[in-house]
Structure formats: structure tokens, C-alpha cells
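Researcher: Quick test of sequence recovery. C-alpha cells follow.
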């Protein structure tokens, strides 16, 4: 495919920041609609149709939180989602597409409603575990490798994710409060512009991702919020892809 690109970003992805780079988030700005909305949503629909097993998984222990998340997103869109129409049995998106509300498939329905990928993390023992997700735009990881794993297991083998950072991230998930979400961003150079870029954890990344052979900037706006009933944490990922020669913060 030729690529789906945004023309601008809501933040400067090159701004220096210490890991994990977390900041408070205005709840009203959680989900975003940008200039690539229609094209990204069409790609999400294609992936959910053709590669559903690769981009969606709900473990039995994650179903209750998935149900809550669908209603939470619907309520958020009704209050803050400009261009959305929320009805009893369907949602009209900003691009005019009507999506039937299928409460028997909460994560699949969410995958057709918003640009963000959505991952649910439930506290099990001492760590949060990935129990459900719709992940259409993975950046060098595979849902099949991460589902059912704890935060530490998810980040293996990320070089910077040492024991100290793992403890800080776990404290972050433990401490996030209902109605007080947090956010961060990352920035990576890629050789290809595809949004769906899964990579097995057994396959190492290519070196020198910052040189001229990697002309695309891929950056993710990552948010963490807590659901009020199940107390599960939602990790949302809004993916931006820009050509490096047209990047505008």
C-alpha cells in the first residue's frame, strides 16, 4: 500500500523527555479525530475483516472490562466526540459511516468506532495483565505474543525496560485514578509506511532506524485511564505516520 499519512501532529515528537514521559491528560481530549481519520478507519475495517485473529483478542477474564469499555467510549463520544451521532442501535461516525452496535462483540465494535487501538490491562497479583485488545496498528509487536502477559512480559525484550523502569510503569498503572487519565508519546523511524507492522518477539529489529533509509516518522499518542467499575486500565494508542520531509509539530 502507498501509506496513510497525517499532515500535522498535536505535539512535538522530538521533544526530549525522560522515560516513561507521563503527563496528565484532560479527559475531554482522550480520543482524537485527525486528518487521516477516514483512511485509517477504512484500513481498520479491512484488518478486522481479513485478519481479525491477528488484531483482536478477548480472554474470558477480560470480557467484563471489554463490555464496560464499549459503554464508556459510547458515553465519552456522546459528550465529547465531535461529528459522532450516538443512537440506541448504531453510531454515525464523523466520516458518515454508520456502525451497528454489537454488544456481543465489544472490542470489534470499538475497532470500527475510533482511530485508537485499545488494550485492557487487569490487575492480577502484583502486575497488570493484557486481557483484551483491538490492535490494528501494531508497531513491531504481535498481539498473539503479548495477550495474557504482564507489563514486564509485554516489554521483553525492550532494551530500555529494565527493572527500575518496570517498577515505575507498574506504579503508574497502580496509581492512575478514575477521571484523571495520563498520556505520553513515542517517536520511531520506519522504512515502510504501513500501519499494520507486526513483528514476532523472536525476530530482532533492524539496526540504524534513525538513518536516511527510514524516511517515515511513526509516533504514538498513548493514554492510560481507569474504568470506574471493573477498575481495569485502558491503554489507548493513536498512531500517526508522517513523511520526515513534511513533518510539522
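Model:
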Amino acid at each position: 500500500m502507498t501509506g496513510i499519512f497525517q499532515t500535522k501532529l498535536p505535539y512535538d515528537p522530538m521533544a526530549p523527555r525522560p522515560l516513561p514521559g507521563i503527563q496528565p491528560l484532560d479527559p475531554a481530549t482522550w480520543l482524537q479525530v485527525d486528518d487521516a481519520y477516514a483512511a485509517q478507519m477504512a484500513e481498520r475495517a479491512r484488518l478486522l475483516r481479513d485478519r481479525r485473529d491477528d488484531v483482536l483478542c478477548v480472554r474470558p477474564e477480560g470480557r467484563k472490562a471489554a463490555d464496560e469499555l464499549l459503554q464508556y467510549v459510547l458515553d465519552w463520544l456522546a459528550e465529547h466526540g465531535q461529528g459522532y451521532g450516538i443512537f440506541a442501535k448504531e453510531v454515525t461516525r464523523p466520516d458518515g459511516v454508520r456502525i451497528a452496535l454489537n454488544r456481543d462483540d465489544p472490542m470489534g465494535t470499538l475497532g470500527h468506532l475510533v482511530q485508537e487501538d485499545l488494550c485492557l490491562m487487569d490487575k492480577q497479583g502484583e502486575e497488570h495483565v493484557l486481557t483484551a485488545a483491538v490492535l490494528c496498528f501494531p508497531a513491531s509487536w504481535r498481539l498473539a505474543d503479548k495477550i495474557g502477559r504482564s507489563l514486564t512480559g509485554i516489554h521483553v525484550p525492550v532494551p530500555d525496560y529494565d527493572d527500575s523502569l518496570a517498577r515505575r510503569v507498574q506504579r503508574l498503572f497502580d496509581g492512575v485514578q478514575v477521571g484523571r487519565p495520563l498520556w505520553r508519546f513515542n517517536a520511531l523511524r520506519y522504512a515502510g509506511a504501513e500501519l499494520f507492522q507486526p513483528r514476532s518477539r523472536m525476530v530482532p529489529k533492524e539496526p540504524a532506524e534513525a538513518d536516511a533509509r527510514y524516511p517515515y516518522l511513526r509516533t504514538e499518542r498513548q493514554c492510560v485511564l481507569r474504568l470506574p467499575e471493573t477498575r481495569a486500565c485502558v491503554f489507548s494508542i493513536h498512531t500517526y505516520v508522517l513523511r520526515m520531509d513534511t513533518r510539522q509539530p
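The mean pLDDT is 89.
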